[in-house]
Amino acid sequence: MKYNQIKILSVNTLFILISFCFQCAAIPSAVQTKERNLTTYSQNSFKLVFTGFYRYEKEKDLIHNKLVEKGYKIDQNSTFQLEIILQKKEPKYNSEFFHKLHFLLTFFSGGIIPTHIRTEHTVTFRYSKSDDILQEKVYFVGMDQFRGIPIFVFMITHWPNQIFKDQLLETINMEFIPQ
Q: Which of 165, 101, 125 is nearest to 39 (CA)?
C-alpha cells in the first residue's frame, strides 16, 4: 500500500515538473521597419492575398477583420492587390552547443532554470496593380520566449500567441495610417 502511494506521488511530481518545464512567456520587441509610411493609398477596395499564413489561420482572420474594421473593402475581383507576406526567420544562436546545453539544463533541473529562444518574423505588405508591383514595405516582428517554472507567473499576460497577434495588429496600425 505504501509503495503504491510513493509511486503515485513520484509520478505526479514528475508530471508537474515536466508540465512546468514547458510553461512559456514572451517579451515582445518593438515592431520595426526600414521605411517610414508617409503615404497611404486612397484605394479603399482591393484584392487581399495572404502568403505564408498556412499555420496562422486565426492571425489571418484577425488581420482581415482589422482591415474591414478600418473601412477597407475586400474585393477579390479588384485589379488593385494587397499581398501580406509572413516569413519566419530561422533562429540564430551565438553557439548551437550552448543553446542545446541550456535546454538540457532546463529539462534536467525540472524547469527551475528557464530556457530562452528568440523568435523573429517579417511581415511584408506588397501593393500591386495587375502584374506591376507598386510598393513593398517590410516590418520586423520579434519576441524573446522563455520556458520554465519561474516563467509561470508571466504566462497570463505574456502568452506568446497573444503577443504575436498584438504585434501583427501593430503592423496593420503602422501600415494603414488614418486618413
A: 125
